[in-house]
User: Fold Dynein heavy chain linker domain-containing protein from Conger conger.
Amino acid sequence: MKYQLLDIQVLQEDIEGFIRSLRKLPKEVHSLPVAFFLEDRMKEFKDSLPLLVDLKDEALRERKAPEGGDTAPESFGSTLRVLLQQAQN
Assistant:
């Protein structure tokens, strides 16, 4: 998966640099609505970087579903029916 090739440290440093650069712009530019929008999106991206770290973690990589995994919806439906019947009584 391509996210495994990402260098999170570089992304972290770059986004922090972009945020600092935006804040250093003249006040007339920094006070525009688009600047607020851009800063919010950059902060959201920065806040999402820990998720990418987790995705790179070997323990959290996608696993093949166990055999019989298709029965979960049926068992859930059965459980839901039982709960609804109990609620009506």
Notes: Residues 54 and 60 are 7 Å apart (CA to CA).
